Give the backbone structure.
Amino acid sequence: MRVAIVSCVYPPEPVVSAQMGRDLALHLAGTGAKVQVLCPSPSRPISENYADYNATRGPLVRMEDGVEVVRLPSFTAPKSRVLARMWESASFGRHVCRYMRAMRNKPDVVYMNAWPLFAQAIIANFCLRRRIPIITQVMDVYPESLVRKLPAPIRGAVETPLLWLDRRLAKRVQHVIVISKSMLRDYAQSRHLQPGKLSLIHTWCDDELLLKMPERNVCHDRYKMQSDKFTFLFLGNIGPVAGVAFLIQAFHAAKLPNAQLVIAGDGSAKADCMRLNEHLGSTSIYFISDPDVSHTPHLLGMANACLLPMQKGSASSSIPSKLMAYMLSGQPIITSVDTDSDTARCIREADCGWVGQPENIEWLACKMREVSALPSSNLSLLGSNGRNYAMKHFSKAGGVSKLAAVIMGVAGRSNS
């Protein structure tokens, strides 16, 4: 069985989608499938130097972890700019098709986790013309999440044609995989898909990596943080919808002399957040950049409580991958997201933290004061609740097995 994994991100990029792609590739290869990964040169986060993986002169083909990985010379846009991201999507789609066109043996099935919407449409049309079954992974609902970022006067003009494109794509591919219950419901209704064509498979985190957390003082020493202070931690991409600026404002308003806020990550909004912190004059907010995924336990190990903010409306279409890592680390979570979102539902079901309205600085500042005064036993109980929930719903073994089963099932039906 020949399986092509088309992934818009792939290790060494420290993005959950990238790690999931490698987990899937290794799992399928372990079953005897011949796996080939098609991906662009790594570009996330923008601060990293990936010179050893540069494919600007042409496709870079080599074995990585026993899997053939093809790095394509497509355009990349790590900065969040709408037009640049559109071109990144189209460029990746074109380069994937160009490479597949030259393949001696076409794949039996293609699993696609590509940039929306142009890469998805270009690759799907190519596969369908050549009768190659294709499965698409939906990590966020486009164009809805894109339209929210645009000026109000042009939203309608942009959303209508893009929604038509995505609806056509979803109907033409063999199977669609979504990552949350609300996405499953909304996608079935808005794209008019039959239930049998949709599967819900949650994103997962490497639970093996977080099974044994390092001692808190070791973690603080590693990053030169003060272990005697209550530590609030944000870990992940500092992008336009992440709400990190809101965290900074809330922490500043909380006025907690015995607490610190650690913001670990990179992203297009990081520079603005650092300027905001400088403007407010806070001396207890620290920015850390450590993209090595193997260091995740040390970052999470500093936390007394993890923070998960999102802008209004942005949590309605997906579950942020940092939620899984937070839960598996055994730390309680303070989240400020749309209260009817899957993220809020998970926190409530797991009983592992607190949920508040997004962008409510007063609520978050008050909650920081309240949580920092709780006994450690209360925090440990909430953290344990979250870990137990994550092991049941977001484990790597369960997620990758379900995804592989869908892929092999589609391939088997197409070849029978």
Q: What stands out?
A: The first strand starts at residue 2 and ends at 7. Residues 2-204+395-415 form a domain with the Rossmann fold fold (CATH 3.40.50.2000).
